[in-house]
From TrEMBL:
Organism in which the protein naturally occurs: Certhia brachydactyla (short-toed tree-creeper)
Binding locations of heme: 425
Pfam families membership: p450
Gene (name only): Cyp4f4
Membrane-spanning parts: none
One GO cellular component term noted in the UniProt record for this chain: endoplasmic reticulum membrane
Protein name, UniProt field: CP4F4 protein
The family this protein is said to belong to: Belongs to the cytochrome P450 family.
Keyword Oxidoreductase recorded: yes
Subcellular localization, as worded in the UniProt entry: Endoplasmic reticulum membrane
Main location: endoplasmic reticulum
């Protein structure tokens, strides 16, 4: 293993005992360090957490592609950090591996088909309008509203998900919700634990005050999910399959409905525990990531008024002469420049900056090097998206990078905001549709401007990419 690892370049470290421990941080400085590593090593480098903990940091398709294209059966996610999520998310798609993951992936894929997502567009529109009415209400007198955008966007995505998964409206954008607050607390506690190595062992964490809060929040989330699943299961057993389907005529089926009805090739259904784990996983993976993507999209458009105005005109032309201002399913493909702006924002500010994998077999690279079995690979989405070998002037926001002519010949592994390959994000079409609706409706009502009185935001990569003091914008009514 050491012989194979020594073929990868090693950046300067602290000393022989600590290696690179403590040198990679979840701060603006940490991202600048990634930029420096990419500029020097281009394809990847070896990072020693401790003398016995090698991590390969990868940021180029030449090193990423073999991992991204590996079968989900042999390329499970690294368990060190993801283990913190296990008591909350259980064996959902994010954390499972092997045959269980493969079976669940097959069973869940139809739940994200276009015909299903089409039915969710009304929810996307409705929840976005609640946010757009609620937040600007504070801007009395017609002046611009100064707003930290990530917090309301997080509530928007949570509101949307709760309706799409459970058909439940908690009005969480307008009033406190115990379930929603528990999810927000769990996300915050996972980040805090990540930064406290002494609390990494579960037996110590469960004795701490944070560990007890985590357990209480888990109990709240699990009780809500289990109650919905069990009530639906009883109704399905009471009515029978056909009567159950008949009872849904005139309204769309939600995520829980779809999972209750799905069966594998042997006729076996998902258990209540399986469905609950997948619902909890969808709530976790779908809210913060989409909110972060939208927040940075708003920030990037606010800093480039010419691109913002072109998006606005595209939306206005699409909606001209209609009785309704809702974005419909067919409209999503009629917003080419807006889509380019979304993709460029996801490149510049990817919501998830890195994904870990632990190799369960040797992975050969095209240049003859081998990633040894058992080694953890940190696939740097941020580093890949900022690699000047792939993206000239990577710090510039340029939506035309994603025009059809400029996209020709580009490796699919150079743009991976939703990862890629067998273990890519199953909900990426859901997220892209939600982002298109939210930005289209927002630009139809407001001009977004940066607050020049505030310093530029300092990026903070945690579970998702945040800003240290929030992302503050000015919203001016049209």
């Amino acid at each position: 293993t050491c012989h194979q690892l020594n073929k990868f370049p090693i950046p300067p470290w602290r000393n022989w005992l600590l290696g690179h421990t403590g040198m990679g941080q979840s701060t603006e400085q940490g991202l600048q360090q990634v930029d420096a590593l990419v500029a020097r090593y281009r394809h990847g480098c070896l990072w020693w957490g401790l003398p016995w903990l090698p991590v390969l940091r990868l940021f180029h398709p030449s090193t990423l592609r073999p991992l991204l294209s590996a079968s989900g059966l042999v390329d499970p996610k690294d368990g060190i950090f993801y283990g913190f999520l296990k008591p909350w998310l259980g064996e959902g798609l994010l954390l499972s591996g092997g045959q269980r993951w493969a079976r669940h992936r097959r069973l869940l894929t139809p739940a994200f088909h276009g015909d299903v997502l089409r039915d969710y567009l009304g929810i996307f529109n409705q929840s976005t309008r609640v946010m757009l009415v609620r937040e600007p209400a504070a801007a009395a007198g017609g002046g611009p509203l100064e707003l930290e955008v990530l917090q309301p966007l997080s509530l928007l995505t949570l509101d949307t998900l709760q309706k799409c998964i459970f058909s439940h409206d908690s009005h969480c954008q307008e009033q406190p919700s115990e379930y929603i607050q528990a999810i927000l607390e769990l996300s915050s506690l996972v980040v805090r634990r990540q930064l406290q190595p002494l609390l990494h062992p579960w037996w110590l964490y469960r004795l701490s005050s944070d560990g007890r809060r985590f357990a209480r929040a888990c109990a709240t989330v699990h009780a809500f999910t289990a109650d919905v699943v069990q009530r639906r299961r009883r109704a399905l057993a009471r009515l029978g399959h056909q009567a159950w389907l008949d009872s849904h005529r005139g309204r769309s089926m939600d995520f829980i409905d779809l999972l209750l009805l799905t069966k594998d090739e042997d006729g076996h259904a998902l258990s209540d525990e399986d469905i609950a784990a997948e619902a909890d996983t969808f709530m976790f993976e779908g809210h913060d990531t989409t909110a972060s993507g939208l927040a940075w999209l708003f920030y990037n458009l606010a800093g480039h008024p010419e691109h913002q105005e072109r998006c606005r005109q595209e939306v206005q032309e699409l909606l001209a002469g209609r009785d309704t201002a809702d974005i419909e399913w067919e409209d999503l493909s009629q917003l080419p420049f807006t889509t380019m702006c979304i993709k460029e924002s996801l490149r510049l500010h990817p919501p998830v900056t890195a994904v870990a994998r632990r190799c369960t077999q040797d992975v050969p690279l095209r240049d003859g090097r081998v990633i040894p079995k058992g080694v953890t690979c940190l696939m740097s989405i941020y580093g890949t998206h900022h690699n000047p070998e792939l993206w000239p002037e990577p710090e510039v926001f340029d939506p035309l990078r994603f025009s059809p002519e400029n996209s020709k010949g580009r490796s699919p592994s150079s743009f991976i905001p939703f990862s890629a390959g067998p273990r890519n994000c199953i909900g990426q079409s859901f997220a892209m549709a939600e982002m298109k609706v939210a930005v289209a409706l927002a630009l139809s009502r407001f001009v977004l401007r940066r607050d020049t009185a505030r310093p530029p935001p300092r990026r903070k990569p945690e579970l998702i990419l945040r800003a240290e003091d929030g992302l503050w914008l000015l919203l001016e009514p049209l």
